[in-house]
Design a protein that fits this description.
- It is a single chain.
- The protein is mainly β.
- It has one helix and nine strands; from the N terminus they run E-E-E-E-E-E-E-E-H-E.
- It has a single domain (1-106), classed as Ribonuclease Inhibitor (Leucine-rich repeat, LRR (right-handed beta-alpha superhelix)), CATH 3.80.10.10.
- The strands form two sheets. A five-stranded parallel beta sheet has the order 1-3-5-7-9, with no helix packed on it. A four-stranded parallel beta sheet has the order 2-4-6-8, with no helix packed on it.
- The N and C termini lie far apart (38 Å).
Length: 106
Protein backbone atom coordinates (compact mmCIF):
# COMPACT_ATOMS: atom_id res chain seq x y z
CA UNK A 1 0.00 0.00 0.00
CA UNK A 2 1.66 3.22 -1.20
CA UNK A 3 0.84 6.20 1.06
CA UNK A 4 3.70 8.69 0.62
CA UNK A 5 5.94 9.46 -2.34
CA UNK A 6 9.18 11.26 -1.46
CA UNK A 7 12.07 10.78 -3.82
CA UNK A 8 14.86 13.36 -3.93
CA UNK A 9 16.41 11.90 -7.10
CA UNK A 10 13.38 12.00 -9.42
CA UNK A 11 13.19 14.78 -12.01
CA UNK A 12 10.05 13.78 -13.90
CA UNK A 13 6.87 11.78 -13.36
CA UNK A 14 5.56 10.00 -16.45
CA UNK A 15 2.03 9.91 -17.80
CA UNK A 16 -0.36 7.86 -15.65
CA UNK A 17 2.49 6.90 -13.27
CA UNK A 18 0.28 6.88 -10.17
CA UNK A 19 -3.12 6.85 -11.90
CA UNK A 20 -5.81 5.49 -9.55
CA UNK A 21 -3.40 4.96 -6.64
CA UNK A 22 -6.19 5.23 -4.09
CA UNK A 23 -3.99 4.93 -0.99
CA UNK A 24 -1.58 7.77 -1.85
CA UNK A 25 -1.92 10.56 0.72
CA UNK A 26 1.10 12.83 0.22
CA UNK A 27 3.69 13.58 -2.45
CA UNK A 28 6.88 15.53 -1.81
CA UNK A 29 8.75 15.81 -5.07
CA UNK A 30 10.66 19.04 -4.75
CA UNK A 31 13.17 17.97 -7.43
CA UNK A 32 10.56 17.13 -10.08
CA UNK A 33 10.51 19.49 -13.06
CA UNK A 34 7.78 17.80 -15.11
CA UNK A 35 4.59 15.87 -14.33
CA UNK A 36 2.95 13.94 -17.18
CA UNK A 37 -0.68 13.76 -18.20
CA UNK A 38 -2.90 11.96 -15.67
CA UNK A 39 0.12 11.22 -13.44
CA UNK A 40 -1.92 11.42 -10.23
CA UNK A 41 -5.37 11.11 -11.79
CA UNK A 42 -8.00 9.65 -9.47
CA UNK A 43 -5.72 9.54 -6.41
CA UNK A 44 -8.73 10.02 -4.19
CA UNK A 45 -6.86 9.98 -0.86
CA UNK A 46 -4.23 12.51 -1.93
CA UNK A 47 -4.21 15.47 0.45
CA UNK A 48 -0.86 17.23 0.11
CA UNK A 49 1.26 17.96 -2.97
CA UNK A 50 4.67 19.66 -2.96
CA UNK A 51 6.18 20.07 -6.40
CA UNK A 52 7.76 23.40 -5.59
CA UNK A 53 10.31 23.26 -8.43
CA UNK A 54 8.04 21.93 -11.16
CA UNK A 55 8.02 23.71 -14.54
CA UNK A 56 5.30 21.73 -16.35
CA UNK A 57 2.14 19.95 -15.21
CA UNK A 58 0.30 17.85 -17.79
CA UNK A 59 -3.36 17.53 -18.67
CA UNK A 60 -5.53 16.01 -15.95
CA UNK A 61 -2.43 15.45 -13.80
CA UNK A 62 -4.40 15.77 -10.55
CA UNK A 63 -7.91 15.20 -11.88
CA UNK A 64 -10.41 13.82 -9.37
CA UNK A 65 -8.17 14.26 -6.33
CA UNK A 66 -11.26 14.98 -4.25
CA UNK A 67 -9.48 15.21 -0.87
CA UNK A 68 -6.71 17.57 -1.91
CA UNK A 69 -6.01 20.17 0.80
CA UNK A 70 -2.65 21.73 -0.12
CA UNK A 71 -0.69 22.27 -3.34
CA UNK A 72 2.72 23.95 -3.42
CA UNK A 73 3.93 25.12 -6.83
CA UNK A 74 6.82 27.41 -7.73
CA UNK A 75 6.57 31.04 -8.78
CA UNK A 76 8.49 30.10 -11.93
CA UNK A 77 6.14 27.45 -13.31
CA UNK A 78 5.91 27.53 -17.12
CA UNK A 79 2.77 25.51 -17.86
CA UNK A 80 -0.24 24.11 -16.05
CA UNK A 81 -2.21 22.28 -18.73
CA UNK A 82 -5.92 21.69 -19.13
CA UNK A 83 -7.82 20.42 -16.11
CA UNK A 84 -4.56 19.77 -14.22
CA UNK A 85 -6.22 20.49 -10.87
CA UNK A 86 -9.85 19.89 -11.64
CA UNK A 87 -11.11 18.47 -8.40
CA UNK A 88 -14.84 17.87 -8.82
CA UNK A 89 -17.92 19.62 -10.22
CA UNK A 90 -19.27 20.09 -6.71
CA UNK A 91 -18.28 23.50 -5.33
CA UNK A 92 -17.97 22.11 -1.81
CA UNK A 93 -15.02 20.06 -3.05
CA UNK A 94 -13.28 23.24 -4.20
CA UNK A 95 -13.82 24.73 -0.74
CA UNK A 96 -11.51 22.07 0.71
CA UNK A 97 -8.60 23.40 -1.32
CA UNK A 98 -6.83 25.63 1.20
CA UNK A 99 -3.63 26.60 -0.55
CA UNK A 100 -2.62 26.98 -4.16
CA UNK A 101 0.59 28.93 -4.67
CA UNK A 102 0.73 29.91 -8.33
CA UNK A 103 1.86 33.51 -8.78
CA UNK A 104 2.97 34.72 -12.21
CA UNK A 105 1.18 32.00 -14.19
CA UNK A 106 -0.12 33.30 -17.49
Amino acid sequence: MLRIVDSPNVNSIGASAFDSCYTLVSIDLQTVSSIGDRAFNDCRSLQKVDVSNCKHIGNLAFFNTVNLISIELPETIDAVNDYAFQIHDNLSQYAKLSCVIMPNVT
